[in-house]
Structure formats: C-alpha cells, structure tokens
From TrEMBL:
Protein name: Acyl-CoA thioester hydrolase
Pfam families membership: 4HBT_2 (PF13279)
Keywords linked to the UniProt accession: Hydrolase
Origin species: Jiangella alkaliphila
Recorded coiled-coil stretches: none
SUPFAM superfamilies xref list: Thioesterase/thiol ester dehydrase-isomerase
Region annotation Disordered: where it falls in the sequence: 115-135
Amino acid sequence: MRHVYECSVRFDDLDAFGHVNNVTFAEYLQEARVDFAHRQLTTSGETPHEGSVVVHQSIDYLAPVPFRTEPLHVEVWVTRVGTTSFEVAYEVKDESTLFARATGVLVAFDVRSNTPRPVSPAEREVLERFHEPPT
C-alpha cells in the first residue's frame, strides 16, 4: 500500500527556466513524509510518533515539471524496516507522467535524548502495512 500526498506547485517553486527547481523536489518529499507520519504513524489514543531523521536521500529526476494548477501526487511507501531505521521510496507524478523517483533512509529518533532509538512495535506495524519490496 502507498500513502499519497497531493502537493501544489507554487509559483516560487520554479527556476529561471520555468520548471520546478531540483531542490524543491526534496521539499515535496519532506511534505509527503511528514504527512505520512502525521496521518499514519500517529493515531488518537496512542503516543505521538516520536520522530525520525533522514540520514540519506537520493532523487532521480525523470521529467521537468512546469507551473501547473493541478497538484502533483507524491506517493511514499516503505521498502525495508530494520531495528532502528527504515527505508522509503517515492514517486512524484500525475495521471500521465512520472517526474521523479526517490529513496530515503530514516532513523527512528528520540527527540528528548537526541539519540537513535528502536522502531516501536506500533510504528513497525504501520510501516509493514506500507511495505513493498524494492524494485
């Protein structure tokens, strides 16, 4: 299963060529990742998602994104769950075009002690629901 985040293209996302700037794609991934964490990893009645930090991210740009009023779809899913880290994959697309693929490694993080921590059982359960093997 994939989490889908609809992301608007803002006028200031564009570069001098009228396309979404490459750095902005990292912001789109972050918005999708935060939306995933808030909607999926934090549920009412449970302890809020402690947090995670990005330790690696890689983006392959496949097609330019011009200014548009229709939102982009940023899909995020999990490709591996470890003891203290997990890996995610992303696709930035619309109905007809795949604009970018990306991957990332996140480490579960205890914000109070400022140290890595194990992925909790509740987090692992959610992450495994969104697991797809890497391609």
